Amino acid sequence: xxxxxxxxxxxxxxxxxxxxxxxxxxxxxxxxxxxxxxxxxxxxxxxxxxxxxxxxxxxxxxxxxxxxxxxxxxxxxxxxxxxxxxxxxxxxxxxxxxxxxxxxxxxxxxxxxxxxxxxxxxxxxxxxxxxxxxxxxxxxxxxxxxxxxxxxxxxxxxxxxxxxxxxxxxxxxxxxxxxxxxxxxxxxxxxxxxxxxxxxxxxxxxxxxxxxxxxxxxxxxxxxxxxxxxxxxxxxxxxxxxxxxxxxxxxxxxxxxxxxxxxxxxxxxxxx
Length: 272
Description:
Pfam family, one: CoA_trans
Region (Disordered): 250-272
Structural class: alpha/beta
GO molecular function: CoA-transferase activity
Keywords: Transferase
Family: Belongs to the 3-oxoacid CoA-transferase subunit B family.
Distance between the termini: 53 Å
CATH architecture: 3-Layer(aba) Sandwich
């Protein structure tokens, strides 16, 4: 088996998406980003959390897309939303006052205190790589009641200290969020293709609390840029069920199917 939690029955990314979906509860209000977070949130809504309220940064509230959106501006989000509000209202009314239960984030770099970098790799003034930037992530990290981080577990991404703090986790330790006046609790879990990390209640440093099936502690440590502690109550994630896999594989992104790109298509054998 390779570095990630793949098996003949499912891929590492499928395991990661399903683990992330399981972390969501029915009735929560979830601020959703595009990519893995959107996949996980929509999967949870289809499986065990039909009352999960999805909020996208573009202003769609309680949206229920039949397919996964290409972007936060995808029309499928508007078509299936309970209502659509302005972007300032999303942030000023919903996010900043703490009305969002959970926010999903990802990044290019993550450090041991859950700080996220999506700005630059290297020195800020002369970066090796300039990344897409923050978007609404800093507000999500600051104000959601809790944050879940979903990203692939690689040594270049899981670093001792991020090159730039785009979205603050626990700063330099357990007191920083309070000192900064941040409303939300911060990152409560990091879900990767290898396992799950959670903050130590005393130090706020991320600790390995669960391994995905077939993954060893040594594999996770080898892909982590700090001396990763392991919980004494280390668990093994349940493998994906047939229903979870069937539902996940039945979800597709808008425009990803050949038929979606041909609006004038006709069924085989049809006559005009």
